[in-house]
């Protein structure tokens, strides 16, 4: 008869968070006929370049991203936003640079929100050969 598994469970609550940067998101996009340039206040440049290449069906080398100053709101500025995609598309279509900056109302409605999850996590581990299983049912936003 196999030994009983060791198990543990925990209730997990992660509070609601809303990023509200003093300096809202903004960007300038340009297209020179072969390459995009995107100047924006953000981080995560390599991931954003890769996602942009996927969206436009181009090689990553076709995207040159510039992030001279994050300007606060660090976590929320790590993503490719729909506004960036719209700017890049508009710059290519118009053949000239296009700029955008969010206002504080737009930031509260359209920017990345995080967390606000509740759930119970369970971990069980067999006493033989270190086999384990994890279960996190009931994860939900409140």
Structural class: alpha+beta
| Spatial shape | elongated
Name the average pLDDT: 82
- How does the major sheet shape up? 4 strands, antiparallel
Written description of the protein model:
By secondary structure, the chain is α+β, with helices and mostly antiparallel strands. The chain contains three helices and eight strands. Strands 1, 6, 7 and 8 form a four-stranded antiparallel beta sheet that branches. The protein has a four-stranded mixed beta sheet with strand order 4-3-2-5, covered by helices on one side. The longest helix has 13 residues, at 82-94. The two termini are 43 Å apart.
Layout of helices and strands:
Layout: E1 6-18, E2 26-31, E3 36-40, H1 45-56, E4 63-66, H2 82-94, E5 98-101, H3 104-110, E6 113-125, E7 132-135, E8 140-141
Parallel strand pairs: 3-4
Antiparallel strand pairs: 1-6, 2-3, 2-5, 6-7, 6-8
